[in-house]
Design goal:
The complex is a heterodimer of chains A (about 290) and B (about 270). Chain A is mainly alpha-helical and about 290 residues long. Chain A is built from ten helices and no strands. Chain A has two domains: about 60 residues, no CATH class; about 200 residues, MetI-like (MetI-like fold), CATH 1.10.3720.10. Chain A is about 70% helix and about 0% strand. In chain B, α5 packs across α6. Classes of the chains: A mainly alpha (about 290), B alpha/beta (about 270).
Chain lengths: ~290, ~270
């Protein structure tokens, strides 16, 4: 999703540190200099200004690049009156429902598969090659096959998203299970844990931080599969809305739809990070 | 061995001519080591790195299978870990998703003891390791010493016959270590468990043990066994300081150090 890549790299607390500071400068307790967050804000403002200016000066035809004001107005209109027979909220609800239904399916299948990979050699032998085979295939490639097999109904759309989510859920569950320290397992065994109790009371909770990270990545992967999934005879959804708008060259709706997808991705990321923080407060503190 | 007949075999943890040989290693880690821990004994294994102390402990725990010889508890062969031999490791291996109390009660939970009952028993054990009122603390809020206390209480909750300690105080600072030693002795006296412990600390071995087994590496073997009485004196009420100030303690310390480094200087 939006904020996963660079901001996730391990770094010293960057806020309040001079952007131009060099490694050998002495650390200062507090400094009211330039922060990364401020630079980001300025960058966004500059992009917005460039966009406004080029639209205002008609550098690009408004058919290709509508002005920010036009996009905002479209946002208000579509929220109120709708576009292609549904309001913006209804499009968003349709898309969110598909993604969350797919997420539940991916967890129900992916966590047990990940456990099997992490715990048993046979499980790893069975599922590892299958997942590694599926993982790099772009959703648009398997979409036709899904339609041939399952038709053009709602299940197909959910399935396309769920397939994209399965690998991240299963693989991060597996890596979480494999990462459980041997001492922790030995301690639990010497306290009388059976094999099933070991899985239930030690391995699953130990893997929980990793599983949640997998869910976050899966949600990002699923959300970016949305447009592909809604290619299939949808009547509602953000992806569908963008495609219909593109067919009629309603560029302001296309741009607005893209921005709404981006904002929702950002909000989902934020929410799931809060959930992680609340559910596994020990992560990173051991 | 006559005493064994008197006490009965039920109260012994026995390693009988145990050899351990790990896959892919040229020499065995341990060769024909026999150790007999009676219930109520405090046996400490000391020796230089690579002498197989931890391997022997793991055989007793049922985590490592010996290539020769065997381990028995109460005459029954040891084939897998079991709660009659609870292990405490150097790294506490606590469960961070559980509060301190539920960590202690883990073994009870596995046995299906109900919440109220296990909270009650866990609190009693926390008091025994001098952590009264820390039951609701999260694991990452505890210091290293406190975490090891929780680990000890958790092992005791399994109501083991024997306690296997793999350098449980190894990661602690010197002052915390000394305080933990008395806690260990209090626990041992109160519970009558047999203890098999691995340590690098020479003084620690003398303070805690009723018997010290000195091992030498290449391959791991017993070079000497000391019967010591300092921990019994503590159990009888003498203060640790006065025990350590005893010239006999200093003498034993010198003798033990010599035994450990015997053959190395030559």
């Amino acid at each position: 999703m939006t904020v996963t890549s660079y901001s996730e790299r391990p770094h010293a607390k960057s806020d309040g540190v001079d952007a131009l500071s060099v490694p050998w400068s002495r650390p200062r307790p507090k400094r009211s200099g330039v922060s990364a967050r401020m630079v980001s804000a300025v960058t966004l403002l500059v992009v917005l200004a460039a966009w406004t200016l080029s639209a205002h000066l008609q550098l690009v035809s408004s058919v290709f690049l509508p002005s920010p004001v036009a996009v905002w107005n479209k946002f208000v209109v579509v929220t109120r009156d709708g576009f292609v027979d549904a309001t913006l909220i209804q499009h968003i609800a349709a898309s969110l429902w598909r993604v969350f239904a797919a997420l539940i399916a991916a967890v129900v299948v992916g966590v047990p598969v990940g456990l099997a990979i992490g715990i048993s050699t046979v499980g790893r032998g069975i599922f590892d090659p299958l997942l590694e085979f599926m993982r790099p295939i772009p959703p648009l490639a398997y979409l036709p096959l899904v339609i041939i097999w399952f038709g053009i109904g709602e299940p197909s759309k959910i399935l396309v998203i769920a397939i994209a989510m399965l690998a991240p859920v299963a693989l991060s569950t597996a890596s979480g299970v494999r990462g459980v320290s041997q001492e922790r397992i030995n301690a639990a065994r010497s306290l009388g844990a059976t094999r099933m109790q070991l899985v239930r009371h030690v391995m699953l909770p130990s893997a929980l931080p990793s599983i949640l990270t997998g869910l976050r990545i899966a949600l990002g992967a699923g959300w970016s599969t949305l447009v592909a999934a809604e290619l299939v005879a949808a009547t509602r959804g953000l992806g569908f809305m963008i495609q219909s708008a593109a067919q009629f060259l309603v560029t302001d709706v296309v741009v607005m739809g893209i921005l709404v997808i981006a904002v929702i991705a950002f909000v989902l990321e934020f929410i799931i990070r809060r959930i992680e923080h609340g559910l596994v407060p020990w992560a990173g503190k051991e | 061995m006559f005493t064994e007949l008197l006490r009965g075999p039920m109260t012994h943890l026995v390693l009988d001519k145990v050899s351990v040989h790990y896959d892919g290693q040229a020499a065995p880690a341990v060769e024909r080591v026999s150790i007999d821990v009676a219930k109520g004994d405090f046996v400490v294994l000391v020796g230089r790195s690579g002498c197989g102390k931890t391997s022997l402990l793991n055989v007793a725990a049922g985590l490592v299978e010996p290539v020769h010889g065997g381990a028995t508890i109460g005459g029954r062969p040891i084939t897998a870990p079991s709660s009659d031999r609870a292990v405490v490791f150097q790294n506490d291996a606590l469960f961070p998703w559980l509060a301190a109390r539920e960590n202690v009660a883990f073994a009870l939970r596995l046995r299906g003891v109900r919440l109220g009952e296990r909270a009650h028993r866990a609190d009693a054990l926390l008091a025994l390791v001098k952590l009264d009122g820390a039951g609701d603390k999260r694991i990452w809020e505890l210091s290293g010493g406190m975490r090891q206390r929780v680990g000890l209480a958790r092992a005791m909750a399994a109501e083991p016959e024997f306690l296997l300690l793999d350098e449980p105080l190894g990661a602690l600072d010197a002052l915390t270590r000394e305080r933990m030693q008395t806690t260990l002795l209090d626990l041992w006296t109160a519970s009558h468990v047999g203890v098999l412990m691995v340590t690098h600390g020479i003084e620690e071995a003398l303070v805690l043990a009723t018997r010290i087994v000195v091992l030498a590496p290449g391959p791991g073997r017993v070079v000497r066994t000391f019967e010591t009485g300092f921990s019994r004196r503590y159990a009888a009420g003498e203060a640790i300081r006065s025990i350590k100030a005893d010239p006999a303690f200093a003498a034993a310390r010198g003798e033990l150090t010599d035994a450990i480094f015997e053959g190395e200087a030559a």
